[in-house]
Specification:
- This protein is an alpha/beta fold and 283 residues long.
- Helix content is 41%, strand content 13%.
- Strands 1-9-8-7-6-5-4-3-2 form a 9-stranded parallel β-sheet.
- Helix 2 links the parallel strand 3 and strand 4.
- Helix 3 packs parallel to helix 4, helix 4 packs across helix 5 and helix 5 runs parallel beside helix 7.
- The longest helix is centred in the middle third of the chain and has 21 residues.
- It is globular.
- The two termini are 18 Å apart.
Length: 283
C-alpha cells in the first residue's frame, strides 16, 4: 500500500561540503524544501570557528530564501569529537563544542541539536565509558534546555560507537540521563545494521523518536534511495502507521561521489518518495 501523506523532508548540506553554502540553499529552494538540517562541517559551519555574527548572517541568508533552520548536526564522527573519551582534554573540548552548538542553534533559529553517544576505549570496561557519555550528554542537554533547544540522541553503528548501537540501549541511556527535552533519532541504516525494524524502534522508544534519517544501505552505507537494498517504502509506511509526522532527512554520504553532484542524488530520493505517495482522488 502507498503512504497516504508525503513525509516532511528537510533540506540538508550532507554531501555539499565541496560546494558553497549558498549553492546548497538555492538547491533546497529548487527542491521545494522549507526546513533545513544543517551539518556542522567545514567550511560551511565549523562549530569552533563560527561566531554569533556569522551565525546570524547564515540565518539571514537562509530566511531570505523562505527557508528556516530546524536541526543543527555538528560533525562528530569524522572529527576528533568524543563526549565519552577517556582522554580528559578531548572529552572536555567535545562537551564545550556541543554546548557552543546549542548556543548557535539559538542564533540560527534551529530548534533541535543532534548528539551521538561517543565511544570508549575498546580495552576498557563499557560501564566507565557509559558513565562518561551519560554525564556529558546530560550536561549538554541541560545547557540546551536553558536556551529552549531540544537535543536528540542518535545511536551509531558498532564501528562508530561501542556504547549505543540499537533502540533498547538508546532507550536505556535516555532513561538514565532523565532529561525531559531529550529525544531520539531513528537512523534507518543504524537500525538495519542492528537487525531492527521501525516497529522495534517504536516499541523501545515510542514518542521519544523526534527525528529520522531516511537512508538506504546494504545495510551499511548511507546511500541514496535505490543504491542500497533497504525497504525504505516499508519504513515510510511503518512510520506513518506509528503516527510519526515530524521531519526526515536524507543523510547522504556513500563513498564520496554524491558530493560531486549532490542535488542529483537528492532528486533521485525525492522521486522515490513521490512513488510511495498515494495519488489523490481525481488526479
Amino acid at each position: 500500500m502507498p503512504i497516504t501523506r508525503p513525509p516532511r523532508l528537510t533540506g540538508s548540506n550532507f554531501a555539499y561540503q565541496h560546494l558553497p553554502f549558498d549553492t546548497f540553499l538555492d538547491d533546497a529552494v529548487a527542491l521545494g524544501r522549507e526546513k533545513l538540517e544543517l551539518w556542522g562541517i567545514a567550511p560551511h559551519l565549523h562549530i569552533p570557528q563560527v561566531g554569533n555574527a556569522e551565525a546570524r548572517d547564515l540565518r539571514r541568508r537562509i530566511e531570505r530564501r523562505g527557508l528556516s533552520a530546524y536541526c543543527l548536526t555538528p560533525e562528530q564522527v569524522m572529527y576528533p569529537v568524543n563526549v565519552a573519551s577517556p582522554v580528559g582534554w578531548l572529552r572536555t573540548q567535545s562537551i564545550a563544542l556541543f554546548r557552543r552548538a546549542a548556543e548557535l542553534c539559538v542564533e540560527l533559529g534551529a530548534e533541535k541539536l543532534l548528539l551521538t553517544p561517543g565511544r570508549g576505549s575498546e580495552d576498557e570496561p563499557v560501564d566507565a565509558a557509559w558513565r562518561r557519555s551519560v554525564d556529558a550528554i546530560g550536561d549538554i542537554a541541560a545547557h540546551a534546555d536553558t536556551l529552549g533547544v531540544t537535543c536528540v540522541l542518535e545511536p551509531l553503528q558498532r564501528v562508530e560507537s561501542n556504547l549505543v548501537n540499537d533502540s533498547p540501549t538508546l532507550a536505556a541511556m535516555l532513561d538514565e540521563i532523565g532529561a525531559g527535552r531529550l529525544g531520539a533519532v531513528l537512523d534507518t541504516v543504524t537500525m538495519a545494521v542492528a537487525g531492527e525494524t521501525v516497529d522495534d524502534a517504536f516499541a523501545a522508544l515510542g514518542d521519544r523518536i523526534r527525528h529520522v534519517h531516511l537512508i538506504d544501505g546494504r545495510p551499511m552505507g548511507h546511500l541514496a534511495w535505490g543504491d542500497g537494498e533497504l525497504p525504505l517504502s516499508d519504513y515510510l509506511r511503518a512510520l506513518e502507521r506509528h503516527g510519526y509526522d515530524d521531519w526526515m532527512t536524507f543523510e547522504l554520504f556513500g563513498d564520496g561521489t554524491y558530493a560531486l553532484d549532490p542535488r542529483a542524488a537528492v532528486e533521485r530520493c525525492d522521486a522515490a518518495v513521490r512513488r510511495c505517495v498515494a495519488t489523490a482522488p481525481g488526479e
